[in-house]
Amino acid sequence: xxxxxxxxxxxxxxxxxxxxxxxxxxxxxxxxxxxxxxxxxxxxxxxxxxxxxxxxxxxxxxxxxxxxxxxxxxxxxxxxxxxxxxxxxxxxxxxxxxxxxxxxxxxxxxxxxxxxxxxxxxxxxxxxxxxxxxxxxxxxxxxxxxxxxxxxxxxxxxxxxxxxxxxxxxxxxxxxxxxxxxxxxxxxxxxxxxxxxxxxx
Length: 201
Description:
Layout: H1 2-24, E1 35-36, E2 39-43, E3 51-55, E4 63-64, H2 75-79, H3 81-96, E5 101-104, E6 107-109, E7 112-114, E8 117-120, H4 135-143, H5 148-152, H6 176-200
Parallel strand pairs: 1-7
Antiparallel strand pairs: 2-3, 4-6, 5-8, 6-7
């Protein structure tokens, strides 16, 4: 049933969120870690709808931190601490599962999230039926921009494949922000210049 699947999805994502918290919380300067609230299945045999879910009510402004489609850019996820930490959580899960699983639809109030989704690359990954299309994973790869929290966790950039050999740099993470931004800037300028030339002809 849809309700059982919904419970399974949220509680699986919640387990990943707990592992993420265990890794992120001890890091100096990381601060509060997003939490996926538990969702409980209740059975009401006398009712027409025998299964229902119960969860804590979230009070406050409800924000969608990750998007369902790439055309919609949510600035709250880019600019808010919770939004950035949600994007890092997605990147962390993606890396932990070798790109096989992505937690999607991260939304909630502050750091408390609910109603999340899961996309899997292959049907039945770890016996899991994702409830989102695997195209979400492709989209995430294309759109994710690493932030300071990704750097704190030492996550590998999804954009630059030629930077793979630099595995030993976890100790030199202090130098990373500068060198990686410089590298990213150069191709961008070159690309803008090329567009400019081609538009003149």
